[in-house]
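Sample 3 of the quickstart, ligand magnesium ion:
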Amino acid sequence: MVMVRVKTTYVCQECGYSSPKWLGRCPDCTRWHTLVEERVAAPVRQKGVMLLNSGASPVAINAVGSLSEERVSTGVGELDRVLGGGMVPGACVLVGGDPGIGKSTLLLQAMGEFAKKGHRVLYVSGEESMRQIRLRGERLGVINDNLLVWSETSVERIVEKAGEIKPDAVVVDSIQTMYTEAVESSTGSVSQVREASLKLISLAKSMEMPLFLVGHVTKDGTIAGPRVLEHMVDTVLYFEGKTGYVYRVLRAAKNRYGSVMEIGVFEMKAGGLAEVHNPSEVFLAERPDGATGSCVVASLEGTRTLLVEMQALVCKTFFGVPRRTVVGVDYNKVLLMVAVLEKKAGMALSGHDIFVKVAGGIRLDEPASDLAIVAALASNYLERPINADTVVFGEVGLAGEVRAVAQAEQRVKEAEKLGFKKCVLPRDNRKGLSLEGAIEPVWVGTVKEAIDALFS
Ligand code: TYD
Ligand code: MG
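Result:
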């Protein structure tokens, strides 16, 4: 029995800052009334956080036994893609997202498919009863012998049972509902979340099995609980989607075993999540015919090209300060593009309200979407539609120049596949680009040239 010394600390519920006395305002994240008293029963001998404790000494890197990177497929291709090619034994994955977005559905479905292949999976839920999980499992069609479900919130019991069962993967549905006896504070508090995760992660590492933790997100979109949680796990995935859209995007925010650029696209159906293998078709499906202010951009998300519609409205301001409303792209980027159009293309936009939106509820953060913002704005301002079979991409600089972007060939190929006939792209991308397909390239060096090419 380890001697226990009970310590009282005040922990900020937003950022995890801890102080020996109560403070009205957290000195770290500067928020008010976020410090809550928490009692931590710290074993006396424990000095710090023990995530990995192999007891070994340092060795030369080439003397370390290589694992030749084992990857295990989950059974859901889009999830594998975002993970960087499948699950890695011992890796811990945190899945965050708004309530009701489909985190539990995604994990039960993926692990159900994984279990069907003969692997043993332990699915622990602190939120749903076993009957509820069974009901969901039936809808998803994943009922089988290897999928073990359990309603439990005690971390100690999970660790003990997992040691007995020796599963090939473990899911813990919502880390915020888990409770460990090491900490006296209430479930969901920062110390609880941190200690509970720590125990579960060391379990996964010592048993060399993949672990999925579901995390709730706060109002501002980050995973509730301390930021340290994101540092402790190997991979952080966010499951996103707008209310009212059936499409969901799974995105990696951190990945020790792969790229963070990859996205997975799903559609929520009555029988669970369906993988969307060709998202461009989906995002372009409802494009209006011959409308002004609409422009198709070939954007890159990880290794995948997405064709998405950029929309803009430019209306005269009748009173007061002109409004700028932006959805799906960076607000400041739109302001820059407006300034470039004003100065370099002579469009008097300063007296206009401006609205820019990416259709389909997707977010574009890539520089290559600059030229599409410019084109959509110009199209609506000039009241001239852009040809429906034209696609655009390129980065725009403040001098009005159109700059080269990465993977131009891949973007053109995708546009070609979807039947586009013309592509407006940076002149600097011409070098080393072999385009022998049916698409007609229009090379532009400035915003002015692009506008002339699109509207003449
Ligand atoms: P859920 O996985 O419970 O969300 P989270 O765990 O992120 O809170 O997702 C629930 C939503 O998904 C709910 O609004 C209903 C919908 N859904 C379907 O449309 N089809 C299905 O087969 C299932 C299981 C859920
Ligand atoms: Mg859930």
